[in-house]
Structure formats: structure tokens, C-alpha cells
Amino acid sequence: MVDLNRARRRFLHGDCTPFQIHSQPNSSMRFMKTVLPYRPTLRTRTRPLFRLALLLGLLPLKLLAQFCPNGVTVAGGNGQLPNPEFVVVDAAGNVYVSDRNLDRIMKFPPNSTQGEVFAGGNGEGAGLNQLNQPRGLALDQQGNLLVADRENDRVLLFPPNSTSLTLGTVVAGGNEEGNGSTQLYNPTDLTLDQQGYLYVYSSGINRVVKFPPNSTSATSGTTVAGGNNSGPNLNQIDGCDGIAVDQDGNLYVSDMFNYRVLKFPPNSTSLTSGTIVAGGNGRGSGSDQLFIPYDIVVDGSGNLYVADQGNSRVQVFPLGSTSLTAGTTLVGNNQLASSKGLFLNGNGDLFVVDGVNNRVLRFSPFRFTGQPPTSQTVCTGATVTATVSVSGTVSGYQWYKDNVSLGTSQQQATLSLTGVDTDDAGSYYVVVTGCSSLTSTAFALTVNEALTVSISPSTTAGSAGSLPARREPTP
């Protein structure tokens, strides 16, 4: 006897060599078809010389998504935003923009440039339904919106679905301007870490203050960066409109008039010196320079995005960058006039406040989010499929075999081959076109001859094919 499970495993792994199974005449045989999901594994090995070349700007930055060059207006551009500053986007795709001149926060639903007042909009003032030059924004895990209310020296929290009638809750400051532990002085930006701690930059005294979760106006904050007057030293900050915290708890500060971005480790204090991770080479437009860095964000891979306002561009610096690192321009001055607020959503879309044009643009990445398997082995007669997935707008697919186009029959995201023969073996890949062109990794298809199974009935007593004689009962 042959182990049927072993035979089935051979078949499923493309082993089509003939074998025999001896069984009883009435035995049954069943093969189960199993489809296992393809789980791609990404392994990156960076050699020391490669890392050095990357930091020196001798190699292009490969770890970033390729963004489509033309942004899409998702807010403003129609007179609704006379002075937009910062932007955040919730999980449902609603876009929130701080409208500084009109002392309000505007909310724009997905796929609509017509907004509605979400908070403020009741004239300049200090009431809980009023704002005075609102700046930085942040969303917490419950969907509450936090607003840096600059001239009121406080941070207000507004619940989801707020309107101009909603009263905000003070979660930091609100005790007049000052340098006390419960005070803020002209806050311009804020951010939250993964544990819910709130970080606020007080522009009047050039420091970043950290508040615990569920803080109120009575809660004392701790200085975690700056607070040593303005200056060029590494424990000083000279103007800031952007702070960010990465997943490891490191704090990033856009040091505007030192034309650099500083990074501070977790649990830093006013005595801690930051390290330069972008710029710091004087004001300029070189790839290793910044000119009034505004807002900043850090993605999950540690790449740093900087709204370089004076150069009307967005620069990106890789994890581990220094003042020697050349940034990569994602969006340039052909799209922007005074880049301000930045936001990255979970899909990798980059939102940029285009200050002079009074709008918010969305730039979508164009990249593979799923690749075909690296290899596949089947038997003749089988059906073979391979699928790719892409983020961004796709205008066409074209599959190739051994560098030869498969024509109009294979112009979908999924390659489909039915009843394959040995001639179908080869190397397959797809070219995807959109705002640019992407070529997938190739996968090797191996086709073996079909499995042959012969069943030989075992012999029994008596003549082959004859029935045994009927026995009469004994009287």
C-alpha cells in the first residue's frame, strides 16, 4: 500500500511523477486541494558602506514610497480658508484644518472641498467656544481633536462631531502666559505619543512641555526640550512650528531660525542636548539645507518629513540622518507656495497645507502593496493565478513572460492561466502604469507532467471476474 497522504503532499507540491496504488476493488480515493496564502517576507540588509553613502547623499533614498507628482485639493482653494496653518485627518477621511485668521477649525468630509465649522468661528475671544489664532492640531485615539489656541495660551479638546456651538475643554495651560509648570506661552504646535502623553511647544519661551494623559488646566507639565532662551546651542530652540514623536518616544523639533531639525531622546529635560537630524548648514535651498522648517512628521520606518516653508517644498530624511544627510524632495515649488502643516495617514497619503494658495493638497503614494509569489510549481492542466495590488490610481496593467508581452488577454491585476502545459513554464512579471511606471518582482513558474495513477485490484480466490457459487441453506 502507498500512503495516500504522502501522495497528496507530493501532488500539491508539484511532484507529478507516476506512482501506483494497490487497493481493494471497492475502495475509494479522494484528493483534497489546499490553497495556502502567500506571505511575502521583506528582509533588508544594509551594509556599512551603503549606510555611509546614503547619509552622505551619494545614493538615492530607496526606502520611501514614490509619490504621484500632482497633488489633489482636499480642502480650500475656493476662498474658504483665508489662512490655513495645520492639518490632521481622521480614520474616516475627514480633513481638519486650523483657519488662523477666522479663529476656527474647519472640517472637510472625504471627497469634498466644501467644509463646515467644527470648532470656534465665534469671533476672536477666550470663551470655551472661541479661539484666538488656532495653530497645531492632533487627534487622540478616541477621535477627540486637540487645538493649540495660541493667543489664549492653552490647549482645548473638542469631541467628535463638534460644531461652532460646542464648548471645548482645557487640557493644558489656560492660566495666562508664563513659564510656570501649569502655564503655556503662545503654543504653536502639539502632538501625542502612543501612551497618550501630550507635548506642546510654547513659542514665547522656546520650550516643549510634556503633560500626562487626562490632564487639565491644573496639571503640571515637564519641560523636555529647550527652555534655555533662543540660541544656536543644541539645548536651545529658536522658533518652532512643528514637533513630532516617533514610535520609540524620540522627540523631533523643527528649529526654525537655526534652519535645522533636532531630535531629543525619551525622558529628556531642559538640560538635554538634541542631535541634528536635518539641516543645520545655514539657510539655503541645498539638499542638506532648510529655509524656515515648519511642520514635521515621522513615519513608521523613521523617515522624517519636513515642510521647508521658505523653499516651498517637502523634504524627507531617512532614519539615522545627520546634518550631512541630503534630503529628498517629495513635493517641490511647482506644486506649493509656502509649505506649512503636514500629515501622514495610515494609507501613506501625505497631506500638505499650501499656505499662499490657501488649500490642502493630498499626495498619494504609487507603489506595490502586494507582489506575486517568487515561484510556483504545478502539474500540467492546472490553473495558475498571480495577483499584485497597488496604492494610487492605476491606468493599466501588462503581464510579461520571459520579457515578452502577453498582450490584451493579460491586462488585469491578476494573471490567470488555465490548463497550463510545459510550454507555459517561465518567468512572469507585470508592469503597472499610473502617474509613473512600476515593475513587479518576477516569479518563476515550473510545470511538471500530470500525475499518473493506476489502480490494480488485488486477486481473490476463484476465477477473475466470476462470482462465487451460491450456497443453498441446509435443510
Automatic annotation (TrEMBL):
<dbReference type="InterPro" id="IPR013783">
    <property type="entry name" value="Ig-like_fold"/>
</dbReference>
<dbReference type="GO" id="GO:0008270">
    <property type="term" value="F:zinc ion binding"/>
</dbReference>
<dbReference type="InterPro" id="IPR036179">
    <property type="entry name" value="Ig-like_dom_sf"/>
</dbReference>
<dbReference type="InterPro" id="IPR001258">
    <property type="entry name" value="NHL_repeat"/>
</dbReference>
<feature type="repeat" description="NHL">
    <location>
        <begin position="125"/>
        <end position="161"/>
    </location>
</feature>
<protein>
    <recommendedName>
        <fullName>Ig-like domain-containing protein</fullName>
    </recommendedName>
</protein>
<dbReference type="Pfam" id="PF01436">
    <property type="entry name" value="NHL"/>
</dbReference>
<feature type="repeat" description="NHL">
    <location>
        <begin position="283"/>
        <end position="320"/>
    </location>
</feature>
<feature type="repeat" description="NHL">
    <location>
        <begin position="76"/>
        <end position="111"/>
    </location>
</feature>
<dbReference type="InterPro" id="IPR050952">
    <property type="entry name" value="TRIM-NHL_E3_ligases"/>
</dbReference>
<keyword id="KW-0677">Repeat</keyword>
<dbReference type="InterPro" id="IPR011042">
    <property type="entry name" value="6-blade_b-propeller_TolB-like"/>
</dbReference>
<dbReference type="InterPro" id="IPR007110">
    <property type="entry name" value="Ig-like_dom"/>
</dbReference>
<feature type="domain" description="Ig-like">
    <location>
        <begin position="365"/>
        <end position="446"/>
    </location>
</feature>
